Amino acid sequence: MLIPAAGDSIQIQSYKHNGQIHRVWDETLVLKSKSNLMIGANDRVLVSESDGRTWRTREPAITYFTTNHWFNVICMVRNDGVHYYCNISSPFIIDEDALKYIDYDLDIKVFPDMSYKILDEDEFDLHRQQMNYPDVLQKILRKQLGTLERWVQQRKGPFAADFVDKWYEHYLSFPQWSK
Question: Which branch of life, at top level (predicted)?
Answer without folding.
Answer: Bacteria
